[in-house]
Design a protein that fits this description.
It is globular and about 60 Å long. The chain has helices at residues 2-26, 45-61, 76-83, 97-102, 141-150, 165-177, 189-197, 208-216, 264-279, 281-289, 299-320; strands at 34-38, 65-69, 91-96, 117-127, 129-133, 156-159, 182-185, 203-206, 220-225, 251-259, 293-294. By secondary structure, it is of the alpha/beta class. The protein has 2 domains: 34-125 and 252-320, D-Maltodextrin-Binding Protein, domain 2 (3-Layer(aba) Sandwich), CATH 3.40.190; 129-242, Periplasmic binding protein-like II (D-Maltodextrin-Binding Protein, domain 2, 3-Layer(aba) Sandwich), CATH 3.40.190. β6 (156-159), α6 and β7 (182-185) form a beta-alpha-beta unit. The strands form 2 sheets. The chain has a 6-stranded mixed sheet with strand order 2-1-3-10-4-11, sandwiched between helices. It starts with a helix and ends in a 5-residue tail after the last helix. Helices cover 44% and strands 19% of the residues. Keywords: Signal.
Length: 325
C-alpha cells in the first residue's frame, strides 16, 4: 500500500510539473506590455541594434516589444534594475560586456551578473574603432602613442561608461603601449560622439556604426580597430594588432538576459524567438550593413561565454589596478 501511494504521488508530481511547464509556455508571450531594456542613451549602436531586433520579435510573436533606454553608469543601472525586476518574461535586457563581465571587477554593484541574470542568447558583436577629431593633429596610432608618451596624462579618450568595452579597450592600450591616457566616461555612444565632434575630447573608442559616417564625411580620423582582423566594412583601417601590438583584441558585444528567477520555460521560449529573429535574413543583413555581426546562441553557450569574458577582463582590471570612474 505504501509503495503504491509513493508511486501515485510520484506520477502526480511529474504530471503537475509537466502541466506547470506547459502552462508557463502557454503564457508566452506575456499578456502585458513587453519591454526590451537598453542600458545606454538613444543614438548609439546598442540602441540601433535593439530596435532592429525588437521590431522582428514583435512581428513574430504578434505583440509589440518596446525598447526602453535606461542610460547611466555604463549600463549598470539598467542591468541592476532588470536583475532585481520582473520575472514573468515581460522584461528582457539587451545586456552588454561592460556590466556583465567588466564592471563587477571595478565597482560595487547591486547585482551579480553571474547569479542574478539568466542568459538567453547572444546578440551582436563588433570591434571598437579608435577615432580622433581633426584638430588633434594625429593621423595614425603611432602618432597617437607618441603624443601620449610625450605628454603623459594629457590625452584623453571617451567611452560609453566606466567598465564598458570602450573603457577597457583604452585601458588595454594603455597597458600594452605603456602610455597614460585619461578615461572620460559618458552615458552612451551618442553623447560621446557629440563631444568628440565638438572637440571637447580628443579620442573615442567608438562603435563603428556611429563613427564611420563621421569618418566618411571627413569629420573624424580613424586610427585603428580593436579586433584581431579588419572588418569587411573597414578594409582600409588597420587593427591595433597590426599597428604594433600583436594579439590585441577588445571586442564589444551585446547579449540577451533576463532576471534569474524567470521560469526556465519562458527563458527557453525567448531563446527560440531571439535566435529566430537574429537568423532572419532581413534582420541579419540590416545588422551587418550597420557594422554589427549577429551572434545567436544557446543559453548554455552564452553562459560559458560570459564566464570566459568575466575572467579575462577581470585580469586586465587587476593588472592595471583600475577603479571605476
Amino acid at each position: 500500500m505504501k509503495k503504491r501511494t509513493f508511486m501515485q504521488a510520484a506520477v502526480l508530481a511529474a504530471t503537475s510539473l509537466a502541466w506547470g511547464s506547459h502552462a508557463l509556455a502557454q503564457d508566452f508571450p506575456p499578456k502585458k506590455p513587453i519591454t526590451m531594456v537598453v542600458g545606454f542613451a538613444a543614438g548609439g549602436a546598442a540602441d540601433a541594434a535593439a530596435r532592429m531586433i525588437a521590431k522582428k520579435l514583435g512581428d513574430n510573436i504578434g505583440q509589440s516589444v518596446i525598447v526602453e533606454n535606461r542610460g547611466g553608469a555604463g549600463g549598470n543601472i539598467a542591468h541592476g534594475q532588470v536583475a532585481n525586476g520582473l520575472t514573468d518574461g515581460s522584461m528582457i535586457l539587451f545586456g552588454s560586456i561592460g556590466p556583465l563581465a567588466i564592471a563587477p571587477h571595478l565597482m560595487k554593484l547591486n547585482y551579480d551578473p553571474l547569479k542574478d541574470l539568466a542568459p538567453i542568447s547572444g546578440g551582436v558583436n563588433f570591434p571598437n574603432l579608435l577615432v580622433v577629431h581633426k584638430g588633434a593633429g594625429i593621423n595614425n596610432l603611432e602618432e597617437f602613442v607618441a603624443q601620449a608618451k610625450k605628454a603623459p596624462g594629457k590625452l584623453d579618450f571617451a567611452s560609453t561608461g566606466a567598465g564598458s568595452a570602450s573603457h577597457l579597450a583604452g585601458e588595454l592600450l594603455n597597458q600594452r603601449a605603456g602610455i597614460d591616457t585619461v578615461h572620460v566616461p559618458y552615458k552612451g555612444g551618442g553623447p560621446a560622439m557629440q563631444d568628440l565632434l565638438g572637440e571637447r575630447i580628443t579620442s573615442y573608442f567608438a562603435a563603428p556604426p556611429t563613427a564611420m559616417p563621421q569618418v566618411e564625411a571627413g569629420k573624424l580620423i580613424p586610427l585603428a580597430t580593436t579586433g584581431l582582423t579588419r572588418p569587411s566594412y573597414m578594409p582600409n583601417i588597420p587593427t591595433v594588432a597590426e599597428a604594433g601590438y600583436p594579439g590585441f583584441e577588445a571586442l564589444n558585444w551585446y547579449a540577451f538576459v533576463a532576471a534569474a528567477k524567470t521560469p526556465e520555460p519562458i527563458l527557453e521560449r525567448w531563446n527560440q524567438e531571439i535566435v529566430k529573429a537574429l537568423n532572419d535574413p532581413e534582420v541579419s543583413k540590416m545588422l551587418l550593413d550597420y557594422g554589427l555581426t549577429p551572434q545567436p546562441s544557446t543559453r548554455q553557450e552564452l553562459a560559458e561565454f560570459i564566464q570566459k569574458e568575466y575572467v579575462q577582463w577581470g585580469e586586465v582590471v587587476k593588472q592595471g589596478n583600475l577603479q571605476g570612474n
